[in-house]
Specification:
By secondary structure, the protein is of the alpha+beta class. The chain has a domain of about 110 residues. The chain contains six helices and seven strands. It has a three-stranded mixed β-sheet with strand order 3-7-6, with no helix packed on it. The chain has a two-stranded antiparallel sheet with strand order 1-2. A two-stranded antiparallel sheet has the order 4-5. The longest helix is centred in the first third of the chain and has 11 residues. It starts with 5 loop residues before the first strand and ends in a 5-residue tail after the last helix.
Amino acid sequence: MPGSNTRSGVTRWPWALILLLIGALPASFAQAPEAAPPAGPGFSVLTRQDNLVYYPCMHCHQALKTNASPRPLYAPHLREQPHGGGTFWCLTCHAAEDRNQLSLLTGDQVGFDDAYKVCAQCHAPRARDWRHGGHGKRVGNWQGERTILGCPQCHNPHDPVLVPSPPDPAPPVRIGFPPPSERTVKHHTVWDTLQHDQNGKDAP
């Protein structure tokens, strides 16, 4: 056929035209790289290293040969390590040759004041909430520089699950307010509210 260039019965020029059109598409059609998550507001962590009872650890460990074999320990250490359901060992987090330091998965070492960096390796979602202020505790003022508690200042790093504690007693009634039993407005309990939401009826 005049003006065509065929090979084995297949016309080649339409494919060249398609490639040319694809190359002419604007860059906006290209897939944009995924944006990195925000780093969060700046903060400083309240120091705790100097308040540790047995720090510096090398006072004792400098005279002991490193033993990497998991085994029951003796005082002042816990005999067992509940953290991780017994899958962790001391050297998972503590530097083997310098017990005054903690060890990251990268092999880098950090001090005890930066223990949150060790925790964040496994607890990334909770660490993100902590960094942004949705978890943990801030000390000082709500304005200005953020000073916050590190993970081990609320959680025992060797047994981090918090044991529920009974609530504090109710605050005293302010002067001029009647005691709760004499108030005319009734506040439904949480359980009554849940029953209302499930049954579609007002709580009794």
